[in-house]
Write a structure and sequence with these properties.
single chain; mainly beta; six-stranded antiparallel barrel; disordered C terminus; TRYPSIN_SER; serine protease
Length: 269
Protein backbone atom coordinates (compact mmCIF):
# COMPACT_ATOMS: atom_id res chain seq x y z
CA UNK A 1 0.00 0.00 0.00
CA UNK A 2 1.28 3.45 -0.91
CA UNK A 3 0.80 6.14 1.67
CA UNK A 4 -0.28 9.43 0.14
CA UNK A 5 2.59 11.82 0.73
CA UNK A 6 0.68 14.84 -0.44
CA UNK A 7 -2.23 14.11 1.87
CA UNK A 8 0.08 13.75 4.85
CA UNK A 9 2.05 16.83 3.80
CA UNK A 10 -0.86 19.06 4.78
CA UNK A 11 -0.14 18.30 8.44
CA UNK A 12 3.62 18.82 8.13
CA UNK A 13 5.66 22.01 8.09
CA UNK A 14 9.12 22.96 6.90
CA UNK A 15 10.87 25.30 9.33
CA UNK A 16 13.13 27.83 7.65
CA UNK A 17 15.98 29.84 9.13
CA UNK A 18 16.05 33.30 7.60
CA UNK A 19 14.14 34.44 4.55
CA UNK A 20 13.54 30.89 3.31
CA UNK A 21 17.26 30.50 2.77
CA UNK A 22 17.70 27.21 4.59
CA UNK A 23 15.32 24.48 5.69
CA UNK A 24 16.21 23.90 9.32
CA UNK A 25 13.87 21.14 10.48
CA UNK A 26 10.47 19.58 10.06
CA UNK A 27 7.48 19.91 12.33
CA UNK A 28 3.85 18.84 12.71
CA UNK A 29 0.70 20.95 12.94
CA UNK A 30 -1.34 20.14 16.06
CA UNK A 31 -3.83 23.01 15.87
CA UNK A 32 -4.37 26.21 13.91
CA UNK A 33 -1.63 28.08 15.77
CA UNK A 34 0.86 25.47 17.00
CA UNK A 35 3.53 23.18 15.57
CA UNK A 36 5.46 20.46 17.41
CA UNK A 37 9.12 19.97 16.56
CA UNK A 38 12.41 19.02 18.30
CA UNK A 39 14.28 21.21 20.78
CA UNK A 40 17.63 20.25 19.28
CA UNK A 41 16.63 22.13 16.11
CA UNK A 42 17.24 25.35 18.06
CA UNK A 43 20.16 24.25 20.24
CA UNK A 44 22.79 26.99 20.21
CA UNK A 45 20.61 29.18 18.01
CA UNK A 46 18.72 32.38 18.70
CA UNK A 47 15.10 31.97 19.78
CA UNK A 48 14.18 35.29 18.20
CA UNK A 49 10.96 34.34 16.37
CA UNK A 50 11.63 36.90 13.65
CA UNK A 51 14.48 34.73 12.40
CA UNK A 52 12.20 31.84 11.44
CA UNK A 53 9.24 31.08 9.20
CA UNK A 54 7.25 27.92 8.57
CA UNK A 55 5.57 26.64 5.42
CA UNK A 56 2.82 24.06 5.44
CA UNK A 57 1.89 21.40 2.92
CA UNK A 58 5.01 21.56 0.80
CA UNK A 59 5.93 18.59 -1.34
CA UNK A 60 8.81 20.39 -3.02
CA UNK A 61 10.96 22.78 -1.00
CA UNK A 62 11.19 25.09 -3.99
CA UNK A 63 7.45 25.64 -3.98
CA UNK A 64 6.27 29.11 -3.02
CA UNK A 65 3.60 28.26 -0.46
CA UNK A 66 2.75 31.12 1.91
CA UNK A 67 5.19 31.52 4.80
CA UNK A 68 3.77 31.85 8.30
CA UNK A 69 5.51 34.09 10.79
CA UNK A 70 6.55 32.71 14.18
CA UNK A 71 5.36 34.37 17.38
CA UNK A 72 7.26 32.24 19.90
CA UNK A 73 9.48 29.18 20.17
CA UNK A 74 8.96 27.14 23.34
CA UNK A 75 11.74 24.65 24.04
CA UNK A 76 11.20 22.18 26.86
CA UNK A 77 12.60 23.70 30.04
CA UNK A 78 14.57 20.56 30.92
CA UNK A 79 16.22 20.16 27.52
CA UNK A 80 20.02 20.35 27.53
CA UNK A 81 21.87 20.25 24.22
CA UNK A 82 24.49 17.77 25.46
CA UNK A 83 21.76 15.18 26.08
CA UNK A 84 18.93 13.76 23.98
CA UNK A 85 16.28 13.89 26.69
CA UNK A 86 13.29 16.31 26.59
CA UNK A 87 13.86 16.82 22.88
CA UNK A 88 10.56 18.54 22.10
CA UNK A 89 9.54 22.11 21.30
CA UNK A 90 6.41 24.01 20.28
CA UNK A 91 6.23 26.81 17.75
CA UNK A 92 3.39 29.31 18.12
CA UNK A 93 2.42 31.10 14.91
CA UNK A 94 1.44 34.75 14.61
CA UNK A 95 -1.66 34.00 12.53
CA UNK A 96 -3.91 30.92 12.30
CA UNK A 97 -3.26 28.45 9.51
CA UNK A 98 -5.53 28.27 6.50
CA UNK A 99 -8.66 26.14 6.70
CA UNK A 100 -7.34 23.45 4.34
CA UNK A 101 -4.71 22.33 6.85
CA UNK A 102 -5.54 19.21 8.87
CA UNK A 103 -3.75 18.97 12.24
CA UNK A 104 -2.40 15.63 13.38
CA UNK A 105 -4.14 14.23 16.42
CA UNK A 106 -2.29 14.12 19.71
CA UNK A 107 -1.97 10.57 21.03
CA UNK A 108 -3.46 8.97 24.07
CA UNK A 109 -1.24 6.90 26.32
CA UNK A 110 -0.28 3.53 24.85
CA UNK A 111 -1.59 4.60 21.43
CA UNK A 112 1.00 2.38 19.76
CA UNK A 113 2.85 -0.69 20.91
CA UNK A 114 5.65 -2.99 19.85
CA UNK A 115 5.17 -4.22 16.28
CA UNK A 116 2.72 -1.50 15.21
CA UNK A 117 3.30 0.10 11.81
CA UNK A 118 4.32 3.75 11.72
CA UNK A 119 5.37 6.26 9.06
CA UNK A 120 7.95 9.05 9.10
CA UNK A 121 8.15 12.05 6.76
CA UNK A 122 10.91 14.51 5.97
CA UNK A 123 13.33 16.17 3.59
CA UNK A 124 16.36 14.57 5.23
CA UNK A 125 19.31 12.83 3.60
CA UNK A 126 18.51 9.74 1.53
CA UNK A 127 21.32 7.86 3.28
CA UNK A 128 23.95 8.62 5.90
CA UNK A 129 26.09 11.38 4.41
CA UNK A 130 24.13 11.03 1.17
CA UNK A 131 22.21 13.49 -1.00
CA UNK A 132 19.57 15.78 0.43
CA UNK A 133 16.27 15.76 -1.52
CA UNK A 134 14.07 18.76 -2.19
CA UNK A 135 10.98 16.56 -2.52
CA UNK A 136 9.22 15.34 0.63
CA UNK A 137 10.02 11.71 1.36
CA UNK A 138 8.11 9.15 3.36
CA UNK A 139 9.23 5.99 5.07
CA UNK A 140 6.40 3.56 5.64
CA UNK A 141 6.47 -0.07 6.67
CA UNK A 142 8.62 0.46 9.75
CA UNK A 143 7.50 -0.92 13.09
CA UNK A 144 7.69 0.13 16.71
CA UNK A 145 10.52 -1.53 18.63
CA UNK A 146 10.06 -2.11 22.36
CA UNK A 147 12.09 0.21 24.58
CA UNK A 148 13.83 -2.64 26.37
CA UNK A 149 15.08 -4.08 23.08
CA UNK A 150 15.93 -0.61 21.78
CA UNK A 151 17.93 0.18 24.91
CA UNK A 152 19.92 -3.04 24.62
CA UNK A 153 20.86 -2.16 21.04
CA UNK A 154 22.06 1.34 21.91
CA UNK A 155 24.12 0.02 24.83
CA UNK A 156 26.50 -1.23 22.14
CA UNK A 157 27.60 2.34 21.42
CA UNK A 158 28.70 5.22 23.60
CA UNK A 159 25.79 6.52 25.65
CA UNK A 160 27.32 9.86 26.52
CA UNK A 161 24.26 11.71 25.18
CA UNK A 162 21.77 9.38 26.86
CA UNK A 163 23.34 8.29 30.17
CA UNK A 164 20.00 6.98 31.49
CA UNK A 165 19.55 4.85 28.39
CA UNK A 166 16.49 4.76 26.15
CA UNK A 167 13.82 5.71 28.67
CA UNK A 168 10.04 5.50 28.39
CA UNK A 169 10.05 9.10 27.12
CA UNK A 170 11.31 7.75 23.78
CA UNK A 171 9.73 5.59 21.12
CA UNK A 172 11.88 3.53 18.76
CA UNK A 173 10.98 2.42 15.24
CA UNK A 174 12.71 0.73 12.33
CA UNK A 175 13.51 -2.66 10.84
CA UNK A 176 15.91 -5.23 12.28
CA UNK A 177 17.49 -5.65 8.85
CA UNK A 178 17.83 -1.89 8.44
CA UNK A 179 17.24 -0.10 5.16
CA UNK A 180 14.42 2.16 6.37
CA UNK A 181 14.58 4.96 8.90
CA UNK A 182 14.99 8.72 9.14
CA UNK A 183 18.23 10.68 8.66
CA UNK A 184 20.03 14.01 9.07
CA UNK A 185 17.65 16.79 8.10
CA UNK A 186 14.51 14.93 9.19
CA UNK A 187 14.85 16.30 12.72
CA UNK A 188 11.67 17.57 14.32
CA UNK A 189 9.46 15.83 11.79
CA UNK A 190 6.60 13.46 12.54
CA UNK A 191 6.38 9.78 13.35
CA UNK A 192 2.74 9.06 12.50
CA UNK A 193 0.38 6.19 13.20
CA UNK A 194 -2.86 5.69 11.26
CA UNK A 195 -5.23 4.78 14.07
CA UNK A 196 -8.25 4.63 11.75
CA UNK A 197 -8.61 5.05 8.01
CA UNK A 198 -7.59 8.56 7.04
CA UNK A 199 -6.93 9.67 10.63
CA UNK A 200 -3.34 10.03 11.80
CA UNK A 201 -1.89 10.63 15.22
CA UNK A 202 1.50 12.11 16.04
CA UNK A 203 3.22 9.49 18.19
CA UNK A 204 6.84 10.64 17.87
CA UNK A 205 9.18 13.48 16.93
CA UNK A 206 12.37 12.71 15.00
CA UNK A 207 15.22 12.95 17.52
CA UNK A 208 18.32 10.80 16.90
CA UNK A 209 19.72 7.52 15.67
CA UNK A 210 22.93 5.64 14.93
CA UNK A 211 23.99 6.65 11.44
CA UNK A 212 20.96 5.98 9.20
CA UNK A 213 19.01 2.77 8.66
CA UNK A 214 21.79 0.62 10.09
CA UNK A 215 20.84 -3.03 10.72
CA UNK A 216 20.04 -3.58 14.37
CA UNK A 217 19.58 0.12 15.16
CA UNK A 218 16.10 1.64 15.02
CA UNK A 219 15.54 5.38 14.91
CA UNK A 220 14.76 7.06 18.21
CA UNK A 221 11.91 9.54 18.56
CA UNK A 222 10.63 11.72 21.36
CA UNK A 223 7.46 10.03 22.61
CA UNK A 224 4.71 12.63 22.30
CA UNK A 225 2.33 10.99 24.78
CA UNK A 226 4.97 11.38 27.51
CA UNK A 227 4.73 15.16 27.11
CA UNK A 228 0.97 15.64 26.83
CA UNK A 229 0.68 17.57 30.14
CA UNK A 230 3.47 19.92 29.03
CA UNK A 231 1.91 20.39 25.59
CA UNK A 232 -1.61 21.05 26.83
CA UNK A 233 -0.36 23.42 29.52
CA UNK A 234 1.24 25.56 26.83
CA UNK A 235 -1.38 25.44 24.07
CA UNK A 236 -4.47 25.26 26.30
CA UNK A 237 -7.64 23.34 25.52
CA UNK A 238 -8.42 22.58 21.89
CA UNK A 239 -11.01 25.03 20.59
CA UNK A 240 -13.89 24.39 18.20
CA UNK A 241 -11.87 25.50 15.17
CA UNK A 242 -9.21 22.87 15.84
CA UNK A 243 -11.78 20.15 16.43
CA UNK A 244 -13.47 20.98 13.12
CA UNK A 245 -10.13 20.97 11.28
CA UNK A 246 -9.21 17.63 12.80
CA UNK A 247 -12.59 16.03 12.09
CA UNK A 248 -11.82 15.95 8.37
CA UNK A 249 -9.81 12.98 7.09
CA UNK A 250 -6.85 12.99 4.78
CA UNK A 251 -8.82 10.88 2.30
CA UNK A 252 -11.02 13.88 1.55
CA UNK A 253 -8.18 15.66 -0.19
CA UNK A 254 -7.49 15.16 -3.87
CA UNK A 255 -4.02 13.84 -4.59
CA UNK A 256 -1.47 14.52 -7.29
CA UNK A 257 1.62 12.42 -8.09
CA UNK A 258 3.11 10.74 -5.04
CA UNK A 259 6.75 10.20 -4.10
CA UNK A 260 8.14 7.45 -1.99
CA UNK A 261 11.52 6.44 -0.63
CA UNK A 262 12.51 2.95 0.47
CA UNK A 263 15.93 3.69 1.94
CA UNK A 264 15.77 6.55 4.39
CA UNK A 265 16.54 7.22 8.05
CA UNK A 266 16.63 9.93 10.85
CA UNK A 267 19.28 11.70 12.89
CA UNK A 268 19.73 15.17 14.32
CA UNK A 269 21.35 17.91 12.22
Amino acid sequence: MLFHVERLAITMVAIFNGNKKKQLCGGTVIDERHVITASHCFAGKSLNPNLYTVQVGEIHLRESNPAYEVQEIKMHESYRSRYYYYDIAIIRLVKPLSSDVIPACLPGEDMVGEGDNVTVLGWGDLSYGGPNPTILQEVSGITVVGNKACNSKFKKISGIQFPRGITEDFICAGLEEGGKDACQGDSGGPLLHEYSEGHWTLVGVVSFGYMCAEPGFPGVYTKVSAYLPWITKYIGNQNEVTQEMRSRTFEHIDGRPLWRSNERVVFPD
